[in-house]
Amino acid sequence: MEDIEFFDICEKEQTAAAPFLEQEKDDDDSVIDQFRNVANRPKGKGHKIEEESEEQDKVRSNDASDGVGDDLDSSGEELSACQLRIEMLTKEQERTETKIEDEKEAGNTAAICRLQALHRRLCAELGNEKDLESKISLMLKENVYKMWQIEIEQGKCGSLQEQLEQDEQELERQCNERAEQRIQKEKTAAQLVERKQQVGKKKEMEAKEEYERRLQKIVEDAQRNHEKAVQFLKKSMSRIHQQEAKEELKTREIMEKRMQAVLSLKNNITSNREKLRALQVRDKAKAREAKKQEMKMREAVLAEGGNVTKEIFLHKQHVELERQKQEFKEQQKSRKIEIVAQILQEEAYAEKQKKQQAWAEALRTRAKLQDCLRWRVKTWQYIENACEDSGAAELQKSWRIPSACSSVDDKSSSVVDFSEKASQDTIHENDEEDDEEANEILAKPEFTGLWSQECNLHKIVKDETDQRPVGASKMERKIFTENLEKLRSRIIRKQVVSGHEFKGCPFYSKPSLIHFKDFDVGRIYKKKIILINASYSVNFCKLVGVSEHLKDFISIHFDPPGQMSAGMSCDMMVTFKPMINKVLEGKVTFLAQNGSFSIPLICTTKRCALALDKELIDFGTHVVGETISRTIILTNCGALGTRFKLQTSAGANGTSTTTEKSFLEEVASPALHGITSDEKPSSSLMEPSISENKERVFSVHTEEVTQHACLIESQKTEPSLRGSHAEQLSQDALIIEEDLEAENAQSPPDPLPEEEPVEITLGKVTEGEIGPFSSVKLQIIFTPSVPGDVRAEFEITFDNPDCKPVHFCVTGVSVDVPVWVPDPNIDLKICMYDRLYQDCIIIRSRAKAALRLKFEVCKGLSNHMELLPKTGYIQAQSTFSVQLKFLPRHSLPEDAGKYFDTETRVLEVPMTIMVADKTKPIEFTVHAIVTTSDLEISPAELNFGYCTIYEAVQTTITLTNKSILPQEFGFVGLPDFVEIQPSDGFGTLLPLESLNLDIIFKANKAKEYTFELTCKSEINRQFKLSCKAVGVHPPLELSHSLVKFAATALNDVSTATLYVINSHVSLNHFTHAVPRLGKGETAPVGPTSFEFLVPEESPVTIMPSVGTVLPGKKCLIQVYFRPVLSEQLIKEEAIQMLCRADRQRMILKKTHELEMQKRREETLAGKKDGRKPSFAASRVRSIKHAAAISGFEPPKPEEIKTNSEEYIAAQYSLTRNFAAKFERYIIPCCVASGDIDEKKGSENLKYSPHNTLYLELHCPAVAPSVVVTSNNGKNIINFGEVAIGHRLIKQITVQNISEEKLPLGFSILNPNGPFLLVNPIGTLEPGENQFLVISFCPSESKLFFETLDIRSKKATLTLSIIGQGVAPSIACSVEGQVLNMGYVIAKEKITSTFKIQNTSTLPLRYSMMLASLSLTRDKEQKRLPFFITSPTGRTDFIGTQNYSGLSVFSISPVEGVIEPGKSQDFTVTFSPDHESLYYSDCLKVVLFGKEIPRVIWLKGAARNHMMFVEGGDPLDVPIESLAVTTPISEEAVKGELDEPTKSILLSLEYTQAETSGTPAVRELKIGAIRTAQFASKKNVEFSLDCLPLLQQKGFTIEPVKGTVDRGQIKSISVSWEPPADFDPDHPLMVAAVLTLKGDIKESYKVLFTARVVST
Q1: pLDDT (tens digit, 9 = 90+) per residue, 76-102?
Q2: Cβ atoms within 10 A of the Cβ of 1, count?
Q3: What is the CA radius of gyration of the chain?
Q4: What is the pLDDT of residues 593-610, one digit of tens each?
Q5: What is this structure's pTM?
Q6: Is the distance from CB of 1480 to CB of 1499 less than 8 angstroms?
C-alpha cells in the first residue's frame, strides 16, 4: 500500500506540475544575469544621468530587445523547468533503485516487477529530458548572441542620445522664455481689463440713474392707465371665465377619452404579457418534455444495447425533416399569396391606365360644367345688386378682398367651407322641396370676394398661382413668395424621436377608403371616418379640402382636435349628395405637422354583374333513347336588374377551337364584370381583361359564384353594406328558384328551333327578368338518338347595353352497347410469386332484356390467371359478378411475353367479354406488379474466431428484402450462447430495405462451436446462416471488465480500482475448468504477466500497466480518468476566435464607412427636392461583401504558441463553454505465462493474442462547476521571486458557473511551508465570484511548489502554487565604508554621485535613511560622548550638524525599486551653514523596509575661507563645544596678529632595524576650495618658516613654499632621519610656522615630534 500511495503522489505531482512547467517564467541565473548586465551598462562617461533620460533609455532598450528578450525569457523558463524535471527524475530513479534492491532482498516478486517497470519508464523520461535540455541550451546561446548584436546596435546610437539631450535642454530653455513673455503679456492685459472695468462701472452708474428716472415716469403713467383699464378688465374677465369654463369642459371630455384609451391600451398590454408568459411557460414545458423524451429514448436504447448516438441522431434528423416539410408547405402558401397579390397589382395597374383615359374624357366634359357655374355666378351677382334691405347691406359689408398675407390654403378652405355649408343645408331635406332648398342656398357667404370674380371652380390651385394683392409689383410678388415658403417651412417639419425620424403617413384612417357604393341620384349618404395618430409623438391634423371636381357633391364636417398624442383618434363626417349618375373618384387632403396626407374617395353607380355557375355542361355517356336534363344557374351579383334571353349561339357551326375561345371570353366577361364592379371608375372601364381573369371564372359552381362575388365586394365596402347585400342576395335567389321550379312543373318546354340539334333542347324558361342580387335556373335537356358525340353552344343576351352576352357549351355521348364494365382497369396492386390473389369484377347492363356473356383470357396466361364462370347471363338493367384468380409462377415473364415488363415488373393483361348478338366486344385490363419474396443474408457464413469466456464477440450481418413489399422476419431456435439485436432478431423489412443485425456470441467454456441460425419470413420461408467459433479460457481474469466513471469535470481526476486475478493453481481439468485455447493444451501453472496497452493521447492512465501475478494471488490496478482539452482543439478554437474578431472588425469598419457615406449623401440630397435614397439593402450587401473579401489570413495551428494570448483565451473560452461528452475506451490487456522481471534486455515474453483480456471504460466528461476567472483562467499561481523573509499576497478569483449553490472545501497546505490560504470560502452562489487570498513567505532560497484542491460535490479544482525564495544582494560603487565630500565654503553646497546595482534576480524596493533623521536621534544625543565611553574607537557616525536645523547631508532618490541587473544612481548633497571640520552622518541602505545590506559614512568639512590644511595628528574631539566662542577680531582677520591661530601636530616615527632604518615620512595637504566667492584671489600661497632649524634636526621638507590653484591640493612631504647626536631616550620636538595667503592670511603652528622605534 505504501508503494501505491507513492505512485499516487508521483502521478499527482507530475500532473499538477506539467502545465506550470510549460507556462511559468523561471530565468536561468548565469545567462540572464549576463544579459541584464550588458543591457544596463552606462551610456555615457562623466555625465549626469537624469531620471527622465534613464526612463527613456529603458523604453528604447525594451523596444529594441522585445522580440529577442521574449525568446530568451521563454527559453530560460523552459531550461529551468527541464533542469527541475531532470532533478526530480534523478531523485526518483535513485529512490526506485534503492527500493528494487530492498524488494529483491525481501523476495517480493510483484513489487520488483512493478518497480522495474517504473525504473525503465523513468530512464526513458530522463533521457528525453536531457536531450531537451541540450536543445534548449543551444537555443539560449543563440538568443544571447542575438541580444549582443542588439546591444551593439544600441551602442552606435549613443551620440544621437547625447544630441537629443542637448536639444531637449535647449527646448526647455525656449519654453521658459516663452512662458516669461506670456506672463508679461497677461499682466499687461490684466491692467487693461481693470481699466475697462472701471470705465464700465462708471457707465453703469449713469445708466442706473437714467433707468430710475424712466421707471418713475412709467409708474406714474401706469397708475393713470390702470384707472382706465379697470372698467374694461371686469368685462374681459367675465368673458374669459366663460371661455375657460367651456374649454375646461371640453378638456375634461378629451381627457376622459384619452384615459379610456390608455386603460384599454394597458389592458391589452397586460393580456399580451400574460399570453407571452403563457407561451414562454409552454415553450419551457415543451423543452423539458423533449428533454425527458430524449432521456427516455436514450435509456431505452441503452437498455436494448443499441447505439445511443446513432438513434438520437436519426430521431433528430427525422424531426428536422418534418420541420423542413412544414416550412416547405408554409413557403408554398406564402408563394401562392404573393402570386395572387402580384395578379391583383397587375389588375390595379390596368385599371389605373383606364382611369387616366377616363380623366382625359372628363377634361373634355369640363367645359359644360364651367358654363353652368358661370350662370350660377351671374345669378348671385344679380341677387346682390337687387337686394337693398338690411340683410343685403349687412351681407355686402361682410364681404372683403383677400389681403396680401393670405395664403392659398385660406382661399381653398373658403371654397371648401362654402361647399360644406351648401351641402349641410340639404342633408335633412327631401328631394321634392325644391323651393326651400333654393332659399337656403341664399345663405350669407363668408368671403364676398369669391362671388365677384369670374373664376373656374374646377381649376386646381397651385403654388405658381399669383398670390399677391392687386397692383403689386414684381419685387413685392417675390417677397411675398419667399415669405410664404418660410411660413410653410415652419409649419411642416421633420419629426425625430430618440434619433429615429418618422417617414410614413402621420395619420391612419379607418376605413382606409371612403367608398359610396351603388348610389342613387338625389339621395344623401353619410360616412363616419376615424383618424388615428400613427406618428411617434404629438401631432396635429388640419383639413385642406377635397378634390376640385368633387366639391359640388362632397361635404366634410371636421372639427380640428388640436394636438393629438400618439395613438389618439378623432372623427370626421363625410356627406355625399349625388347629382349625376356617374362614377366619381378623388381624395380628401389633410395637413399634419410632418407633411400632408390624403384619403382616397370613390363613388360607384349601380350596375349589373352577371355570371354563370358553369360554362360547360357534360351529360356524359348515355344509351340511345334515354332523356336526361341538367340545370344551369344565371346569377346577378350587381344592384341593377335587367332582362335576359337564352338562345342558340350564332357561330355554333364554326370550328370548335374558335368557338370555344370566343365562348370562354364571353362567359368570363359578365362574371368578372360583377366581381370587380366596385373598382372601376366609369362605364368605359367596366370590361375586365379576359386574359387575366378567365381562369378564375370557369370552375365556379352556383354557390361558389355567389359567395366569391359577395366576398370580394364586402372586402372593399363597409360591414353594414356587406351584411345587407348578402341577405338580399340570398332572399332573392330563394324566391327566384321557387318560382322557376313552379313554372317548370306546370308548363312543358317550348318546341326546339330548327337550328338547334335534335339531341339537345332548352327548357321552358328561355327569357325573363333577373333582379338585383338574384339568380335564375335554366333547364337543358339531352335526348340521344344516334350513337356518337353531340355538342351545342348557347348564348344569353341582355337588354342592358353594358352587359355583354354570356356563352356556354353542352356536350354528350350516346352509345348503342348496353353492357359495360364500370371499372375497366382492374388493379391487383403488388403480388408475390406462388401466392394466390382474387378480385371481383362487376359488369352492368343498360339493356331491357337478359344478355349472354362469355369471358376470355389470353392463351399465354391461362396457367397464371382465370375468370370464373367462363359463361353467364346478365339480367335486364342489373349487374353481374365475375371472379378473377391470379396465381403468378416463376415462369410468368416467359409466358406473358409483351404483356410483362421485366424492368418495372409490371403486368398488363387485356381481358375480353363477348356479348351475344353483338360484334363489338367489351374489353378491360388487369394490372399487377409481380415481385419476389426472397430475403438475403450477407455474409452467408460467420466465423467469430477466438472468444474468451469473459467477453462477448459481436459481428454484424445485413438482412436485405428483395421484395417491393414489406416482410416480417424472425430468428427462431437460438442457442443460449447467441443473442441477436435489436428486438431479439424480430422485425419488419420495408421494400428493398437492408437492415443491419448484431450477432452477439458469448462462449461459456473453452471448446469449438459450430451451429446454424434460422430466419423465417411471414410466409413461412426459411433462410439459414452457418456460424462457428472457438471458446478460450485465459490464464488471468479481471475483477471488473467494465468500469463506469462518474461524471468528471474538465481537468479533474476520477479513480477506479480493480484486480487482475490468477486463479489457475491446478492442471486437473476434471475438477474445474482450466485455461486453454479451445481443445488445445492447458496453460502452465506459475507466475503470469500482463500488460495494459493504453492508447496514446487518451485521458486514461492505468497504474501499474505492467506486472506479474503469482498463482492464487491478485494484483491491484488503479485506473485514472482525467479529461483535458487537446492542444489541437485549443489551437483551432483560437483560429476561429481570430477569424470572428477580424470579421467583426471589418463589419464595423464597413458600417462606419456606410454611415459616413450616407451622411454625406443626405447632406447633398437635403439641398435638392425629391425623395432621399434608401441604403438599407445596399448596406447589408456591402457588409456581407466586406466580410467575404476580408484580406485576413488566419494563422496555421502550428504557428500558435502555447503561451500566447490567443491560446490562453481559446482555452478559457472552451473551458467555460465545455459541453458534456461521453467517450468509450476498450483497453486490451495482453497475457503471457512467465515472470516479466526475469527477462533481461530486449527479450520479451511470448504471449498469445487469443488470451487477451479487454477492459471497457465509460468516461463521461462534464463542464467544471468552479473555474478561475483571474489570470486569464490559469490554474497556476506563480508568486515569482520573493525575498527571503518577505511576504507576498495574491488574489485569485473563482466563479461558480453552475446553476446551483456549491459548498466548497479545501485541501490542507503544508503547515511548515511558505504558502498560506488566508480566507477559505464556504459557499458559492450560482454565477457568484469570490476572492481567494494566498500568501507566500519564503524562509530559504529555493523553489517551492504545492497544490491546493478546491472541492465541491461535483468536481475538484486543483490550483498549482509556485514561488521562489531569493536572497537579495547589491553592489555599491563606494569603495570602503566612507564617502568623503571634501571641503566646501560654508553656506555653499557640493554634490557627489555613487551607484548601487541590483545583483539579485528580483526587483529590490529600497529606501535611503540618514542617522541624523532617525526617530531615536533625541535619545542618542542624551548619552555620553563616544570619546568618553569608548576610548578605543569611534562608535557614533553623526557629527556636526547645521545651526539652522536643516540636514547637512541629503540624498536623492530616497526610495524606489531597482530591477534585476539594473543600477541606480544616487546623488549626495553636502550643504553646511557654518565652519566645521567634523561634519558626518551615517547613510543606511534599507531593502524592503527591513534588511540593511550596506552602511556608508558620509564626511565633509566646511571653511569660511578658501584655503585649508589637512593632515597631522588630531588635537581635539570631533564634537563641537557648547561653550560660546569669542569671534575673531578684525585685526586678526587682516593678519595683524603675529601669533598663529591654530596648531598642527605632526609626529614621525623612525623605524630602526638591525642593519638599517626606515625614514619616517608624513604629509601635510594644502588645498584651495573651488568657489565663486573671493574673485580677487585666484590661488593660495603657502610658506614654511624655520627651515634651517628643521634641517638641522634631521627634517627634510619639500616643497617649502608654493601656490595652489582653486580646486587643487598640494602635498608637503616631511621626512625625518635622526641626526648623529640624537638621543633616542629624549624625543625631538621642533616648531615651525605655516603661513597661508588666500582671501585672508592664516598662520599655523606646526609642531614636529620625532622618535625612534626599534623593531
Answers
A1: 788 888 888 888 889 888 888 888 888
A2: 6
A3: 60
A4: 888 889 999 998 888 888
A5: 0.41
A6: yes
